[in-house]
Amino acid sequence: MKNILFAAALLGGMSAAAQQPTRSQAPADTLAPPAEQTQRPPGTATRPSAIVGTAGADKNELKYNLNESGSHFFKVTFLNQTWLRLNQSNPGTTVNQVPKENTFDIGLRRTRIQMFGQLTDHVFLYVQFGMNNFNFLNAFPSYNNNGTPANRKIAAFFHDAVGEYLVFKNKDYLKLGAGLTIVNGLSRFSQPSVSSIMSMDVPVFAQATVDQTDEFSRKLSLYARGQVGPIDYRVAVSDPFPVQTNGATPAPLSSFSNFAQKGHTKQFQGLFLYQFFDKEANQTPGYMTGTYLGKKKIFNLEGGFITQKAAMWHREATADTVYTDLNLWSLAAFLDMPLNRQTGSAINAYVGYFNLNYGPNYLRFNGIMNPASGTTASLPGASGTQGNAFPMFGTGKVVYAQVGYLLRQDLFGAGKGTLMPYAQMQMADYQRLTKGMSVFNVGLNYLINGHNGKLTLDYQNRPIYEAAGTQLAPTGRRGQFVVQYQVFI
C-alpha cells in the first residue's frame, strides 16, 4: 500500500511541477537541489507525502518525506542534456567509411535519473542511473570486440550505487560509504555536479582514468568524507576495473606507457579543501557544484591526488616489460560568489595546476561524444584521433582555468531569465607532443530558469597533429559549435 501511495504522490508531484514554473534555484551536489535539508513548518500533515515546492519559494522538487519534520526523506531528480553540434573534422576523419570534412549531429550528452535519501538519522542511500554520449554512432562499430552485433539499446547503466553512514547525528564531521561511486581525489572536476556546470561541459581531463579503469569516472570504493570547520575532505581506497573490460581493444604493449593488462592493485586517492566563506554542499557523495549562481559566497583552496602501484606498463628497448606507478596530483583555487546582491550578478572562476604521471610518453586522444567512426590518418602510438578528438590526457603538466560572469537576474524581464558568458582554457605540456597544447572554449548560457532550464551556445578551438618521429607535432587547428539544451528537475 505504501508503494502505491508513494507512486501516486510522485506522479502528482510531477504533474504539479509541470503546471507551475519554478524560479531560479541554487544548485547542489550532482543533479540534486541544495544540500541543506528543509524542515517542515509546525502543524503540517503528520503522514509522509510527496513535496513539490514546499521546500521554499525558490525550488520545486520530487520529495517524499519519511517523517514529520522532513529530516528523513527520499528524493528523485531527472536530467537531460541535448546537443546540436557542427564540427570541423580532424584530418582523415571518416563517418561510416565515408570521408567527412565537417559533421552535424544530434545527441544526448547526459540523461540521468537520480534517487537518494536520508532514510534514518545515520543511513543515507544514493543511486544514479542513466546514459552518456548517445548520438547516431552510439552503437558503432557495427560489431563489438567479441564479434557480436552492437546494440544501441544498452547504453544506460548504473552510475552510482552507494550506502553511506553518518557517524555523528546531524553533523557532517564523518561519513563512511561504500559502493560504486564518483567520490574521487585529484580535483573538484574529477567529481563534477553535471546539472550545475558553469560552462557547457567540464574539463574531462580531470576525470583522469575515465572509461579506462573506471566506469565513467565511478569506481568500487570504500571512502570517508566530511566537513570539519573550514576543512572539506574525502579519502578513498578504490578497486579499479581491468582495462580489458572497458569495451575497447586495449592498446598493445609498446614503448609508450599505457594501463597494464596484468596484475591488480588498489588505488588510493584524496581531495582536501579549505573553505574561507560559506561551506559547499555536502549532501550527496562526492559531487561538487559547478556554480551556485550567486546564492553562496564560496572561495576555496584545494589539493588532491590519485596514486596506484604498478598501474601502468611499457616496453623498453631491451624488450623488457616495465611496470610504473600512476601518480597524479593538483592544486587549485575556486571562486563562486555574488557581486551585487540587489541585482543578482555573480562571478565564477577556477584555476588549477595538474601534475600527471601516467608513465613515460602516455598520451590519450579523446573526443566528447565523437561524431566520427574512423580515420585514414596514422599517428604513432595514438588511436581515436578522428572527429573532434584531441590529446586530452597525457603524462606532463596541465593548467586549467575558467571564468564566468552572471548578469543581473531577470535581465529580460520578470521570470524571463538571464545570461552568463564564460571562457575556458586547458594548456598542457605533454611528453609526447613537440610543443605545448592549448584548447579554448567560449560560450554563453541563457539561464531560462536557473539550471532547471538552460540553453548554452559553446565554441571550442582545438589543435590537430601529424607525426614527428615518435612524437606528435601541431599542424593547425579545428573548431566546433554546440548548442545544448538542459532540462532538470
Automatic annotation (TrEMBL):
Keyword annotations from UniProtKB, A to Z: Signal
Region (Disordered): 18-50
Signal peptide (from-to): 1-18
Organism domain of life: Bacteria
Protein name: Phosphate-selective porin O and P
Organism per entry: Fibrisoma limi BUZ 3
